[in-house]
Amino acid sequence: MNNTSDTSYSSISGTNNSNISVTNRNSTPNANRLHIALFGRRNTGKSSLVNALTGQEVALVSPTPGTTTDPVTKAMEIHPLGPCLIIDTPGFDDEGELGTMRVERTLKVIGKTDIALLLCETGDYQEQEWMKRLAEHEIPVVLILNKADQRTNAGETNAEELANRIEETCKQRPVIVSAKNRSGIEDIYRAILKNLPADFGGQTITGNLVKEGDVVLLVMPQDIQAPKGRLILPQVQTIRELLDKKCLIMSCTTDKLEDTLCALASPPKLIITDSQVFHTVYRQKPAESQLTSFSVLFAGYKGDIQYYVKSASAIDALTEQSHVLIAEACTHAPLSEDIGRVKLPRLLRKQIGEGLHIDIVSGNDFPADLSGYHLIIHCGACMFNRKYVLSRIEQACFQGIPMTNYGVAIAYLNGILDKIVIDK
Question: What is the CATH number of the domain that holds 41?
C-alpha cells in the first residue's frame, strides 16, 4: 500500500487554510512510524475515515457489513504528526466462523498500536469494554463519532446529543466528524497530538553511548544474508543516527578490521558489529574501544534490554529436553547461513546438545500460549515498532517465560556478554 514515488502534498481538511497536510514520501521505515489504528463495529465508517485521513481511496468502502476482512495499512507523512502508519481493522462485532477469525486479526493489531481511534455509535457496553481493553495495554484512545452528516435530525440522532450521551457513558468526549464531508479531520489530529504516548519517539539506537566527534567503527560482514548492492536496515538506520549526532564514522568488513584499525590515528570510541562475528571482533578490538552489535542496540531501541540480559542466563538451565522459540520479525526465504535459522540454533545445540528442541516463527506469527517453551530468543525487530515488541515481552513476562535477543544470546554463548557495552 506504500506509494514511494508520489511526493505530492494534499490537504486533508478540505480547506485552503489547513495547517495539516499529508504526503506519500515514504523515507521512514514503517516500523519507526506512529501506528494509528482504527477500531469499531462494522459499518461505523472506519474505512471511509481512513480514506479521509489519508486523502486517498486506500480502503474499500461499502454499505455491506464486514467489507474489511483484513487489517489495511497506509504509510503517510502527516504534518504535524510526522511519519504515521494508519491501520484499518475489521469490525469487532463480526459474526460467524469467518467473523471470529477477523476479530482475532483485529485483536492482534492492538499489540502494534501506539494510539487508537475508537469509533463509537452509542457508547454502549461493548464499546466501553474496548476502551478498557485498550487502556489495559496502555494505549491512548481518541473516541470518534462519525457520520455527522447523517445525524442532522433533532432528538436522539442529533450528533451533539449523541456525543453527550457517549461522553456520559464512556467518560470521554468523542470527536464529531464526517468522513464523507471530511469535516472534523483536523480535530482528530489535534486530539492525537494531545494524547500521544509520553515515551513515543524518545528512544534512540545508540542512546548515550556516543556523542559529537566520537569515532565509531562499523564492522559489517557482507555475507550471503546481505542484500546485493544494499545494506540491511539496522545498519542504514544506525549510520543515519550517527551522522545526525555528528560522529565520525568508519566502516569495514570483518576481514579488513585489522587494516582499518591500523589506518585510524587512535582507537575508535565504539565498535558496532554484526552479532554473528562478535567473538572475532572482540579478539581484535583495542582495549580502549567499547564493543556492541546492531542487534544489541536494537534490543534497547525496540525492546527491554535489561530483561533480555537477565533472561540470557536461562541458557544455562537448558537441556536437550528443553524447548526454545526463535522469533524473527521479517519474513524471508531461508538462507544457507541464516543467523536465526542456522547459526543461532547451531550455537545453542553446540552448547546444550543436538537434542534441543527449537521452533522458529516469523513475521506476525507468535504463539498466544508460550507455556511449552523454556526460552524465547527474538531478533533485533527492525521491522516491528517498539510497541509491538514490548507487547511480546509483556506476554512472555506474564506467562513467566524468559525472553532474550539474538545479539544478547550470541554474546552470552560466546562468554562476552559482560564485556560488551549496553546503554542503560
Answer: 3.40.50.300
